[in-house]
Design brief:
6 helices; seven-stranded mixed β-sheet; about 280 residues; Metallo-beta-lactamase, Chain A; alpha/beta; globular
Length: about 280
Amino acid sequence: MENTGKMKITIWGCRGSMPTPGIEKNKYGGNTSCVQIENGNSCLIFDGGSGIQELGITLHPDIREVNILLTHLHIDHIMGLGYFQPFYNPNCTINIWGPSGSSETLINRLRRYFSPPFFPVRFKELSAKINIYEIDNSTFNIDDFTITSEYLCHPGATVGYRCELGGSVVSFMPDHEPSLGSSDFPNLTEWCSGYNIAKEADLLFHDGQYSTEEYERRVGWGHCSVSDAIDFATLSKVKKMVLFHHDPAHTDIQLERMVDKSIQNKNIGFDLSIGKENDVFHLQ
């Protein structure tokens, strides 16, 4: 694989829970979780939400290998897999990385999605060559990337990913409730869920589903307020954070107002933006 030492990162979906099309959500998009990282011929895809369908259309038809890294198997993070065109290309190898459940393997959990009544094509009927890799608190290499995974505070087996290349770091935690992972959040790094994944990252994609008021009624649901996400990014000393997993009920205007309210009277020491479909970032 050609190594350029550069990462191109594209958001193909950043909505949470379910796809939400509509004119009032056109700016930030309605597709669920999917982010692509490219370096030369290497293609890493984080999560297989509804955004992966459009991503698959843009890939070169002769692509030979794709790596899909699943954070967990809630339906909004895998619902697009069956519509990802390379699965139907017999000349393509697809490596799927993700956590197993407490009582069921990753392959068996994927087979449940790729089967009626959820999907008409069974897993064994897909044309591509598919390799399954179960991970937990792991470190592994994909081409020139070094990937670290770690379990996070979220219902069910869920991991976050730290992707490193040439000194640059992208961290991906779309579903995360960091305030439950520490006895003194956000003041102590010890026992703070996700800290090792996010520490000093150049670019952090992080759950920001709720306003502070919404989160107070949803503690334990596995998601994060924008205010807590900002505190987590500050604790982790990241350079840039992109808010992710937007609530399906939030319009573009509501997202912007929620963020504006959360940063009032705060001196934020990093770049902050709201995740938007088709946004592209470059690291080198």
